[in-house]
Amino acid sequence: MNRKKVIMRNSIIGTVTQVFQMLMSFIIRKIFIRYIGIEYLGINAVLTEILEMLSLTEFGVQNAIIFRLYKPLLANDIDVVSEIIFLLRKLYYIIGSVILVTGFCLFPFLKYIITNVEVSMSAVYIAYFILLLSSVLTYYMGYWRTLLYADQGQYILSTIDAVVNFVASILRIGVIVYFKSFYLYIFIVLCKNTISNLIVTRYTQKKYLGLKSDIVISKELKRNILKDVKNIFAGKAAGYVYSSTDNLVISTIIGTVDVGYIGNYKSITTAANTVMTNIFLSMQPMVGNYVASESNEKAYDFFEKYSFIRFFIACMLLIPLINTIEQFIVWWIGSEYVLNRSIPMLIIIDIYISIVHGSTGEFILAKGLFSYERTMGIIGAIVNIFTSIIGTFILGLEGVLLGTVISQIIMWAGRSIIVHKYCFAYNNKYFFRYWIKEIQFFIIFMVECVFTNKLFFLFNGMGGISVIINKIILSFILCFIIHFIVWRKTKEYIYFKEWSFSLIKSVMRKFGI
């Protein structure tokens, strides 16, 4: 199957399943707040982020393994694939054990992180243990996912996860309504992850029957993997700092309940970002394939087009979101959960930066240039920690989010230098051309934000889901018109139009239209 068809299949299935899971998560969150409460919601968010912090012991092993799998999978070299996968299994067994031990060591510190709540600490400890067990079992069982993903089988993973998640969601709703039990709720999460990984394991073992479990792992492979892991870790740590430390800072300094309030907004923006991620997740193996098999000129041409596609779709997704998020909160869970308007704007700017500069990170990983990202990753992480903590004391919640935006900009600048200098070996002319385009992109994005917001001022006194849907549709249409007027003659827009039409035709054929 050619690259374009693989991308379309993975994008369609990934997006559809994520939209469905997103809708289920909104239903579950609303029911959770009503029957169990905002305190437990905040506690669940903070405990989850603590375990994400522990997952840093994964040290970027998966990214290093994926990079090493691209070429042997293309060449159908079973021996090398076997060697890499079973090295991953050994590493994941070690990592799971380290997380388990470290997780137990953190028990005494939970009382300093979970603050200003009426829930007993014994209840927090039980919840933490169940979530810790779920995280550990993922490493003991989930290494087969890496092989399937590297071989462009993301649509299979999406389908399996969607089916299991649907069943688990129905069970969680029942548990919340009839038992009002937080413990049973997170126990179902544990079962969901375990069953999903079991199905993936069984499927992958059947698909790759030729893999050899008794193969000797070479010292050279171990040395190269560990070298890559060492360099990836800084970038992974920085990524964790961007996405996870906000809630820990808020919980420790302001209060755990506030994590629940801001989490309502983030659940909406995260759902939108997840849809975006799944659209592009299917393209990441293609990026690796491009870098491995094409010339610098062709790869850079694709990089420019891919960057434009990310910007275009980001605007089409985020502009409607910024215009409706407050009304959606009111309609969804109530006006008492609405926060200052600057908070969703900062969250969305952070997501915008993450989306549009994602192409730089993907090309760096595909090229295997992990060491060059290390220094910028460390700087970005340090900046985020300090600016978020200082900002919390000065601006409150807005200060935490502003610190994250600043660190994102620093990482963006660093990655753009790495991509142009080391991925494509191009001079300053290309680097400045990239940034001129990105500045133009951001100006258009902000113009669309202001223009649509002013235009929809007439709707501010109105409520209901019909108004929200109308604003989403109008925002989408206006963004498309602006983009068409500004970019219609560029090679990037022409490529995006052809890609979109091919995607639509593919969908229509699948449904017999």
Question: Would you kindly provide a written description of the structure presented here, covering whatever features stand out?
Answer:
With 513 residues, the protein is mostly helical. The longest helix has 37 residues.
Please compute the radius of gyration using only Cα atoms: 23 Å
Main sheet specs: none
State which percent range the strand residues make up: under 5%
The global form is: globular
The total of beta strands comes to 0
**Structural class based on helices, strands and sheet pairing:** mainly alpha
Q: Which stretches are poorly predicted, pLDDT < 50 over at least 5 residues?
A: none
- Amount of helix: over 70%
Total helix count?
20
Task: Name the features.
513 residues, single chain, mainly alpha
Q: How is this fold's topology laid out?
A:
Elements: H1 3-35, H2 38-54, H3 61-74, H4 78-105, H5 110-113, H6 121-141, H7 144-150, H8 154-179, H9 182-207, H10 219-254, H11 256-281, H12 284-293, H13 296-332, H14 342-356, H15 358-367, H16 370-395, H17 397-423, H18 428-455, H19 465-487, H20 491-510
Overview in brief:
The chain is mainly α.
